[in-house]
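Q: Here's a chain of 187 amino acids. Please give me its 3D structure as tokens.
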Amino acid sequence: MASGIEQPSRKSTGAASQFLYAAKKLGSDHVPARYLACHGIELALKAHLRSRGYTLDQLINIRHSIDRALASAKSTRMKQPRIRVLRILEFAEEIHFKHEYRYPHLHHPKFIESVYLIYAGAWALREATDGVLTAIPKRTRGREALRTQMKRLATELMEWARPKIVGRKRDPVLARMMRLLEIQNTD
């Protein structure tokens, strides 16, 4: 029988992977893909937090802030993301918290290919898996199968996204994101 923490965190992780896969299926040029990927990131981080004992009220108080969810997750033993993932997550915070992709006709949302967001989401999903599995007793039937499935999903997404963004000598999208973040931090 699933514990009070275990079941919601498993469901959140499953939902995060569904949002990320839906974003992948839509492709990089679609606003809904970017929205789905950002929401997948948010759900993966919150799945980690739920597995570490956060209540629903605490998660609701984080709202749609990827920065706050990441800071809370790191304080509960989630690994620090690599700089590329961190910059993508910072950029995702800007567009997701302000709901820029929900209302593209009102705002002029900052552009980022969804593949970047999916890459960062796959990192969050992979890291959340460790937290979710920690909440499940080791002898629970199906625990290892769940671990294998969750890790496979995250790895599949990362392997799909990695060749599209990693290895570029100068990554123009990452450079543009960093410039935008620097401009915003000086205002």
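Q: Can you summarize the key feature?
A: The mean pLDDT is 83.
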